Amino acid sequence: MSEVTIDRSSTLDTLFEPAQIAGLSVRNRFVMAPMTRCESPDGRPTTEVATYYGRRAQGGVGLIITEGTSVGHPAASNDSNIPRFEGDALPGWKQVVDSVHAGGARIVPQLWHAGLLRKWHAHGVKHGYGARQDVSPSGWLNSDEKICDPMSIDDIEAVVTAFGAAAHDAHELGFDGIELQGAHGYLIDQFLWAGTNRRDDRYGGTLGRRSQFAADIVAECRRMTTPDFPIIFRFSQWKQQDYTAQLATTPEELEQVLSPLCDAGVDIFHPSQRRYWQPEFDGSDRTLAGWTRKVTGKPAIIVGSVGLALDLRQAGFAAGAAAEVASLERIPAMFDRGEFDLVAVGRLMVGNPEWCNAVRAGHLADIKPYSSEMLARLT
Ligand SMILES: Cc1cc2nc3c(=O)[nH]c(=O)nc-3n(C[C@H](O)[C@H](O)[C@H](O)COP(=O)(O)O)c2cc1C
């Protein structure tokens, strides 16, 4: 696809101007990245959860992507305190939507299925794998370890249906779109990655066929909503099972992975990098988000250590080193080069609900560094 020619000279202020991105109108280009908080007992988001997201909306962010929320399938989640996106959890989500809209931001739920990662997460050890309800493309957790039977076609259809039902509910509840969690080694990514997908049917064997499960989900979400309901797709090269993993080793391979998803109806891509400025392929400074824009012609979100000095892995996921505040000076020039359309901020939003307003006002000294202790409760 041809690349959009860009001729602009931006400052950080440019990114605070309203924008229309693939049917999503936002008051600025800053996004709260999805972050699991495990504060929804029995999977139902509480009033505190609604207040937590509402506070970030009042803090000036343009779009909120919620924490991963599990679709209505028995093996989707690994923790009963992670919010579900089904049944009796939906009224809690309505409160969240209303609270965020009252604060002037847009919001999409991140629809998620853990696949075989769920028990690894829940227990931190290999415990209880292989239960009948566990699902995985080929039964592999990573490149070395087979755990359970491959998913049957019926199993696949049940998960695709669950994602479509969740998309339908998101639309009905007044969300501004959805994000599909296709990153970090969870179920959709287990299909995308050769390390976990050993199938030789229409869901495996080539890069394009490994995207078929994700494409089926995107198409079902489109079918269960409307043609103009924004669908964001998050993906990553790295996996929690293997930080060196790569879905694509060249731009051509990236195009083969993403084209079926474009054809199925993805509007915006969210390539999850741990360092937003890092070049992706040899011989070019372009980031994964920049390459994604180039090979798909779709808008992209950058993420990973925006405003922070240590990346997610260096700082530890839920524990580990604190990360100091860092400069944002690279960002406007990257925007001018056509690397991204939206900028997602994760850890800094945990301790700084007002991060956007502080950056906009130039009050960078007010921003607190990240510390994992900030995750202890919702504030
Ligand atoms: C506590 C925590 C929970 C996270 N939960 C999710 C999640 O539910 N879904 C997801 O796609 N990424 C999740 N992430 C990754 C973030 O969305 C983001 O990509 C990552 O933190 C890098 O951005 P940052 O450097 O600005 O924090 C989580 C990160 C943290 C720190």
General description of the model:
It is a single chain. By secondary structure, this protein is α/β, with parallel strands linked by helices. The chain has one domain: TIM Barrel (Alpha-Beta Barrel), CATH 3.20.20.70. It has 13 helices and 12 strands. The protein has helices at residues 47-58, 90-102, 117-123, 153-173, 187-192, 207-210, 212-223, 251-264, 288-296, 312-315, 330-336, 347-351, 355-360; strands at 19-21, 24-26, 30-32, 63-70, 106-112, 140-142, 145-146, 178-184, 231-239, 268-271, 301-302, 342-345. The strands form 3 sheets. The chain has an 8-stranded parallel sheet with strand order 10-9-8-5-4-3-12-11. Strand 3 (30-32), helix 1 (47-58) and strand 4 (63-70) form a beta-alpha-beta unit. Helix 1 runs parallel beside helix 2 (90-102), helix 4 (153-173) runs parallel beside helix 7 and helix 7 (212-223) runs parallel beside helix 8. The model is unreliable at 123-132 (pLDDT under 50). The structure holds flavin mononucleotide. Flavin mononucleotide is lined by residues 33-36, 67-68, 110, 181, 183-184, 234, 272, 303-306, 308, 312, 317-318, 345-347, 375.
